[in-house]
Structure formats: C-alpha cells, structure tokens
Amino acid sequence: MDKLDYPVPELNVRISFIHALIAKQGFHFARPEKRTIKKAISWDDVVQVETPFPVSWLSAKIAKKMDKPTIGTFHIYPQNITSSLPFLNNRLVNWLFMLFFREKSFKNCDALQCPTPKVAKWLRKNHFKQQLFVVSNGISPQFINNSHKKEVGHPFTILCIGRFYHEKRQETLFKAMHLAKHAAQIRLIFAGQGPLQKKYEKMADELSNKSIIQFFTPEKLRQVMAKSDLVVHCADVEIEGMAYMEAFASGCVPVIADGPLTSTSSYALSEYNSFPVGDAQALANIIDYWFDHPQELRLMRQNYRDYGRHLSVANSAKAALGNLKQLYLKY
Known about the structure:
The protein has 14 helices and ten strands. By secondary structure, the chain is an alpha/beta fold. The longest helix has 18 residues, at about 315-330.
C-alpha cells in the first residue's frame, strides 16, 4: 500500500480579526481540497475528524456520502476561541460558535469523542444528538514514571502552568497569595509565556516571596514538577488541562478551578482539590490546608500518581480503539 499521506495546503484567511484569532491559538487552517480528501477516505473503514474546522467538516460530509461511519473529537469550547479576543467573548458570539459546531462542523458525525463527563454534559445541554464516547487524551509514560521528591516543602512549592492569557486566570493565584497565611513560606513557579507576562511580573513583585515566571522546555518542566508540592489550575475555560494531568501524574497534588466550562475539575478527588473559579479566598484556604497537613498531602500525592496510571495514553488508546470498532460494527 502507498504511504498514507494526503497533504493539503494552508488556507489563507484574509479577514484581519479572524487571522489574529487563529494566530493567538497557534492554529493554521488547512484548505479543504475535495479530491485529496476523497482519496484519503476511499480506503478506510472509519473516519475520525479532529477539529471543527473546514477540512474536518468537509471530510465528514464526504464520508457520509461514501457511507463511512464518522466520529468527531470535541476538544474545544467556543470560549477557547473567543477568550483570546475579548470583544468576541460574549453570550451571543459564543452561542453562534456553538451553533456552528453543532449544525456545520460535526453535523455529519455519527458519534463524538470528548475527554471528560463534564464535556459530554455540555454537549447534551446544547442538543448535540450524536452518540458520545468519553475518553481522556491520556497521560504519557514519562510523566507517570517521573520521579518526585519524597519530602513535603523545603521549600513548599506551588506550580502554575499555562499560557499567560485571560482565560487562564493566573491572577487568581496571585490574589490568593495575599490571603494565604503561609504565603511567606511558599515559592510560586509560573511556567508559561504570553501577553500578560509583564502584568504578572508586576503582581509577583508585590508578594513577600519571590516568584519564578518563565517558559520551560518539556524536559525542564518535568524537573520542576518533580520538586513541586501543589499544581494550581485557575482557568475558567478548559476542555482537558493536559499539563495539569501530567503534573498530578508526576506527583503534584492539584487544586483546580471549578466552573461551568472548567472540565479539568472532573479530576478533583476531594474537596481540597478544587475551588470555585475566581475565588481567591477559597484557593488561599486550600493552599493553607495542604501546607498544614503534609501527611495528607503525601497520601493524596500517591492517590494521584495511581490515578495518572489509570489515565495513561495506553488505556485511552485502547478505549478509543474499542469505540471505533463499536461504531464500525453498529453502522
């Protein structure tokens, strides 16, 4: 069989604000070339489309005409797109994006795969009619097998991972550190980069303990995870926070913002692993709890390491393959 590679060129988007939107998300749109897509689909048993964008929706449409079962992966809320451009992030525009996803992007899919039960609930609430499969993206072995310090503290370290964008809400952690009674004994590490970095550097200067704010390579980030006690996730829009899953699989106990669009909170194992999104006082209280209870922190660390093994890439791949087979046999 020939190499299964069907390249298509980049789609040039000339509307300036859409181009800016795409660039901020790190995406490049591919041009949907019908002939190439037909050739790609012609030999397969099941079609899986990965995004709600042009190549995917044309592929699903063609697959339907060719009588091929099709599954779409739902890994992006409308707010993941619009939050990068605040003038678009409103109820009407987000509803229009949702409608576009439902009536155009995934219309011809027989099933949708999503990473958490919370995402599945959102899809049902918004009247997506497809069969739903819940499968995590999965955690890689290098994080599951990452070493971690045995002691708690020395110093007590909180890690916060993510791009410095509005939807990540890292300012909540800065505010919490003004309220936490142990703030002076805690080291903060913000791993990332983005347009809000200078703002966060100024906020860090107001804290009693110096914070580290910088971008880390994947290897360096794993080393930082190995020395961190907590990983705090403040985002108010997140489909599945892979960096946080990788961190808790590495031994960092997570504290995760919980809100309508914060699907990562599905992974909270106790009341001390989540807080209401944007609530700096609640976050400060949980940080103080873990600081005051090192033995419980060690136990929860092991609970999350075990949980990470359950959410491995291998287990997710096995589940996803089973879903594809089920869809094919049902079709």
